[in-house]
Specification:
The structure is a single chain. By secondary structure, the chain is an alpha+beta fold. It contains three helices and three strands. A three-stranded antiparallel beta sheet has the order 1-3-2, with helices on one face. α2 runs parallel beside α3.
Length: 115
C-alpha cells in the first residue's frame, strides 16, 4: 500500500514538473494553465501598455480574451514572432511565440482607504 502511494506521488510530481518544462520549451514565459491571470493583470493595470511573451494559447485563454474584450473593452495586439529553428542557442527547435500587448483600463480599488 505504501509503495503504491509513493509511486503515485512520484508520477504526479514528474507530470507536473514536465508541464512547466514543456511550457518553457514552447517559448512562453508563463505556463499554459496561468496565461489568463497574466492577461487579467495586464488589463487591470493603470493606463500603461503591458506586453508578455506566450507560447501556444490554450482554449481557455482564447475564450478569456473574448471575455476581457466584452467586459472591459480591452483589445490585445497579438504579434507572432517566428524564430529560425536552426538558429544556434534555440532550445528544442522552437517554432514561434506570441507577444501580446494591451493598454490597461486603469482599474482602481475604490474601497481602499486613503491615508
Amino acid at each position: 500500500w505504501y509503495q503504491r502511494r509513493v509511486r503515485e506521488a512520484v508520477v504526479s510530481t514528474q507530470s507536473t514538473g514536465s508541464s512547466g518544462i514543456n511550457a518553457e520549451y514552447g517559448g512562453g514565459c508563463v505556463d499554459g494553465s496561468h496565461q489568463y491571470l497574466v492577461l487579467l493583470y495586464m488589463v487591470l493595470t493603470q493606463h500603461h501598455v503591458s506586453s508578455v511573451r506566450l507560447g501556444p494559447l490554450t482554449p481557455y485563454t482564447i475564450s478569456f480574451l473574448r471575455n476581457l474584450k466584452h467586459f472591459f473593452g480591452a483589445v490585445f495586439k497579438i504579434k507572432v514572432e517566428k524564430t529560425d529553428v536552426d538558429e544556434p542557442g534555440n532550445k528544442k527547435g522552437l517554432g514561434s511565440t506570441l507577444i501580446l500587448s494591451c493598454l490597461g483600463v486603469g482599474f482602481e480599488n475604490m474601497n481602499r482607504s486613503m491615508t
